């Protein structure tokens, strides 16, 4: 069994496990080289051989305990018929959402379009040692909807007018997304993934009165499905602050990833019956070594008596020096 599963499922607190969100891609020179030769990001995600190679890059370099498949949460809207483009230094851009077309999607076509992702999982599993987990992931319904309906006004604000104008359709869209995400999760498990993480990266933008319907319930439904499939699962409801507690009470995932705004001591005292993962601000990897170790120590100490998976409070930043990542891993393993 992988160390990730030993902590997540067996709640073995003396077993340590470490991996990083966004460890594949973004900052490694060996990734940047492949990326520079492959301008179309979606096509790169659909190249099973290259995507498997990228998935394994951080494992080869750092011997991390788990691999996360190189793909993207926006592969779901892609497979549901929206055009997805990544504009350099600007982020993703999706073609205009069409409700009728969206509701008309069929399951077989959806799976077919994502088949290269499943193939990549198969190939990766064959090349990954058995003591390491292969993590599959999906974007939570709300976070996907933010991109699909182009709800963001700028980096961290929601266009509330757009939200209210679309309010009557939102639940319908979320429900349909849940159906397709279930298929995507099941296909990834069949291909060989043995842990699932759900990224609700924009949960923090949801107005208070909608948090239950747009975040807690959709995540809970996906976790229910993971449990039915007996697949260990982790949620990441980024930015919801103290609502992490209510999220945890309702969703009941095996693991919960802290974001960097959550105080680790608060988390330890308030998040019960769940394995805690992550929390460390990825920006500390850009600071001095001393500050990085100090930051890491805070999390290691806070969780030393309970099961804990070392990870970050959001993804590794593109400007991270790989040597820093190595030092952080060494520090953690020698602690
Ligand atoms: O231009 C490039 O080189 C593409 C950069 C890149 C990479 C390497 C994007 C574009 N996606 C990815 C891979 C990716 N995305 C992984 C692979 C495995 C890993 O490295 O861990 C994963 C797990 C994701 C997940 C993802 N994509 C999330 C959730 C996690 C998070 O960081 O909050 C989100 C929100 C996305 C959307 C996305 N993909 C890429 C960009 C630039 C964005 C937008 C982010 C934003 O709006 O700020």
**What's the average pLDDT?**
96
Q: Supply the number of helical segments.
A: 15
What small-molecule ligands were found?
Answer: coproporphyrinogen I
Beta-strand content:
5-15%
End-to-end separation:
23 Å
Unreliable spans are none
The CATH topology? TIM Barrel
Tell me what the CATH architecture is. Alpha-Beta Barrel
Q: How many separate domains make up the residues?
A: 1
Inertia-based shape: globular
Work out the number of β strands: 12
The CATH class assignment is: Alpha Beta
What Rg, in angstroms, do the CA atoms define?
Answer: 19 Å
Q: Helix/strand/pairing class, anyone? A: alpha/beta
Biggest sheet overview: 8 strands, parallel
Helix coverage percent: 40-55%
Strand order of the largest sheet: 1-12-11-10-9-8-5-2
Question: What does this protein look like?
Answer:
The protein has about 325 residues and is α/β, with parallel strands linked by helices. The protein is about 50% helix and about 15% strand. It is built from 15 helices and 12 strands. The strands form 3 sheets. Strands 1-12-11-10-9-8-5-2 form an 8-stranded parallel β-sheet. The model has no long low-confidence stretch (mean pLDDT about 95). The structure holds coproporphyrinogen I. Coproporphyrinogen I binds near residues 22, 24, 41 and 315. Coproporphyrinogen I binds near residues 70, 71 and 315.
Q: What is the element layout, followed by pairings?
A:
Layout: H1 3-8, E1 17-18, H2 29-36, H3 41-45, H4 48-62, E2 66-68, H5 75-79, E3 84-87, E4 91-94, H6 99-103, H7 107-113, H8 115-127, E5 133-139, H9 141-148, E6 152-154, E7 157-158, H10 160-191, E8 195-200, H11 211-228, E9 233-237, H12 244-251, E10 255-258, H13 264-270, E11 275-278, H14 289-302, E12 308-310, H15 322-334
Parallel strand pairs: 1-12, 2-5, 5-8, 8-9, 9-10, 10-11, 11-12
Antiparallel strand pairs: 3-4, 6-7
Helix pairs in contact: 4-8, 8-10, 9-10, 10-11, 11-12, 14-15
Bound molecules: coproporphyrinogen I.
Coproporphyrinogen I binds next to strand 4.
